[in-house]
Amino acid sequence: MKVIEEEIKIPKGYKAAAVSAGIKKENRLDMALIFSESPCVTAGTYTTNVVKAAPVLWDKEITASDTKARAIVVNSGVANACTGKEGMLYCEDTAKTLSEKFNILPKEVLVASTGVIGAQLPMDKIKSGIEKMVPDLKEEVSNFELASKAIMTTDTLPKKACVTLEIGGKEVTITGMCKGSGMIHPNMCTMLSFIITDLAISKNLLQKALSKNVDDTYNMISVDGDTSTNDTVLLLANGKAQNPEITEENEDYKAFEEALNYINETLAKKIASDGEGATALFEMTVKNAATKKDAKILSKSVITSNLTKAAIFGHDANWGRIICALGYSGVDFDPEVIDLYFESKAGKIDILKNGNATSYSEETATKILSEPYVKAVADMKNGKESATAWGCDLTYEYVKINADYRS
């Protein structure tokens, strides 16, 4: 697997476009289109919030069927959530408008929205945006860069990831883009992620790989503990790489799983590090827990603790907050045996040994916690399972952003 660090690479057969359709203020990019020259097998995971936005319901029906998709239309600014039957009709109308341009079925068009909940889509602007984007579709990196910006809401920067790998003697490319900054606590944030590949793979294995991977990536991040109505991850594979189709869990499948994990973990961490108002990415690893489930619960309990998040913002090695968060997680463990340390580019420092504070230097600890990427590791000494979760610090700016969100 080769990670594309700088300019992303576009998988064979895909084009993209973006436009300012007037949905947002100040003529900002607010619509994106991803299109495949050939039909794609699809996979998707979605919010577990009981309140699901209309696009989530539309896409779930498509990815659960044998329908092969050709396009994804995304708007930012309006979430099309809590919009009733009218919201569903607008999804269909959006899909139909695009489908007529390419003589395909509306059900071959996936849709996604993000933004303010409760407002109806301005369909005149949506349709006008589609009219403008279709002629601008290009298989160029610059177009995908614009698309990644168009799906943003309170994000401060676009989020992308790309890898190439060899499967069956053919070069395969996997490229992903996502948005997410607030209302981030996936249980599958407002989080949208779109991943495209030219891999040839069966639908059931594509879905299996995505569902499994989401649990260890997007579901292990949190910004504010709020699970969005619109969380959507879509994965499209059009087979244009012409590798022998993956139809069983062989070495090619494992190689794809590894590459997909890199894409999703990278995007997930970018969401966490760009949490609204955040100044630091906070990573919590729990190792030697009794079960994998315990390790996940424990690590996520820490990164969702507002007191711990505030301590990270203050560069304060207040380890008692971490122990407290571990303790109320619901997982049983012996606090008298735990080891805990912090680390970053500035170094590593042991904080606890067998449940007792070490004679660590507060000055050194503050230096380590002042980096933009801070890690904490807790050794539970209770088994062999590990898990990692990602969050961010809690700052004054978070409150300001969300107090002003609709104004």
TrEMBL record:
Subcellular location: Cytoplasm
Highest taxon of the lineage: Bacteria
EC number from the UniProt entry: 2.3.1.35, 2.3.1.1
GO molecular-function terms, A-Z: L-glutamate N-acetyltransferase activity; L-glutamate N-acetyltransferase activity, acting on acetyl-L-ornithine as donor
Membrane-traversing stretches: none
Metabolic or biological pathway: Amino-acid biosynthesis; L-arginine biosynthesis; N(2)-acetyl-L-ornithine from L-glutamate: step 1/4; Amino-acid biosynthesis; L-arginine biosynthesis; L-ornithine and N-acetyl-L-glutamate from L-glutamate and N(2)-acetyl-L-ornithine (cyclic): step 1/1
Residues carrying the site annotation Involved in the stabilization of negative charge on the oxyanion by the formation of the oxyanion hole: 114-115
Residues that hold substrate according to the record: 153, 179, 190, 276, 402, 407
Uppermost EC category: transferase
GO CC terms of this entry: cytoplasm
Entry keyword set: Acyltransferase, Amino-acid biosynthesis, Arginine biosynthesis, Autocatalytic cleavage, Cytoplasm, Multifunctional enzyme, Transferase
Catalytic activity, reaction form: N(2)-acetyl-L-ornithine + L-glutamate = N-acetyl-L-glutamate + L-ornithine; L-glutamate + acetyl-CoA = N-acetyl-L-glutamate + CoA + H(+)
One GO term of the biological process aspect: ornithine biosynthetic process
NCBIfam families (alphabetical): ArgJ, PRK05388.1
Subunit text: Heterotetramer of two alpha and two beta chains.
Family: Belongs to the ArgJ family.
Protein name listed in UniProt: Arginine biosynthesis bifunctional protein ArgJ
